[in-house]
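Appendix B. Raw example, untouched.
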Amino acid sequence: SHFVDIGAGESKPCLHLAASHHVASITGYEISGELWVHSLRTLAQLLQTDHGHHFSHTFLAHANVAHAETLRHATHVFSFDEGFPYHTLEQMGKIYNNSPHLYAIIAYHHPEIYGITEQYDLVGTIPTNKTIGRQMRTRQAYVMIRKITPAAPPRHTQFTLPTPTNLKYHPVNEVPEILYRKGRPTMYKST
């Protein structure tokens, strides 16, 4: 399976999944440059450990996924989409519907908000606690499953990320050296 985390933040779900499960690929998308840089540093440290091989199939992208048309080979999506504007949620629904291999979605809005009720069934909710700033919030995560099981992505196919022009990729086999301009990450290069 191919796992995608939208709104990955510090990429904790991606890194936990990589450490404990056998997944073909794990991709985390984060729009905040600061959180993305933090996740890259964490991934770089994990790659240097004795268990670094567990993270070799993890990709972290600084990206606005709403510019994509599809998540191509993604089979499972987790999206911490609290705070996403309504038009972005609608666009995410279009992306989910256009993703040919996507089977399961866990997100923080009801499927009607995304406009995906024709293709996905709501099969349950999960109460979750999330600390935002100094506040603990309890939210419902919605579990959605595609009504018709999609075909599996091709085996041994390189998992490709959507390519809007604003994406920056972290090739996991290269430890990034973050370059700064005025305290903000501007690009990376391999060391």
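End of appendix B.
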